Task: structure prediction
Amino acid sequence: MQPQSPESVPPECYDDTQLIEQFQSGNTAVFDTLFTRYQKRTYRLVQRFVPNHEDALDITQDAFIRAYQGLSDFKSQCQFYSWLYRITVNLCIDFLRKKARSEVMVYESDESDELPMANVPDLRSDSPAKAVENKELRAQIQKAIRQLPPKQRQIFILRHWDGLSLKDIAAAIGRSDGTVKAHLFHAHRNLRKYLRPYLREADF
Result:
């Protein structure tokens, strides 16, 4: 069997590095493969910050436009998705900052989201009275999270909902490990203050 020439290999068979090399060599059509590969993952990331569907779609599209425009200068020291992740998170933070200036933020959590507090009571109780109580608790938690300053909210979400390490968060948002730790510390302190009447002793 004769080996396939590079021209005969479909773009989806290439890894990210190969696609980027092709893009930087002038074959910009391969960006469609990167878009297909990461569009759903990026959209889900955006919705962590911006639950509104239309806004999330706009930010996702903007993230890929920024990536397309900057890919010619992309350096291979980091992975493509890490780079795209940072672009996306920064766009989300810009959106939230602008929105906070004009209106009160409303954060609607998806029912499948895991709450990032270790000692929150089980929200799947069969007791109707307990279910009402826990629904109110969930609302208070979401209210407390949206009261955090933008940077604290950003880092809290990346740490407790996306499960990123402090090092990965620092790389994603372009800040030092120390800065990330400081923001996370203040986020935890503020949430304990906001939720003190509702939680026994939160381990976060």
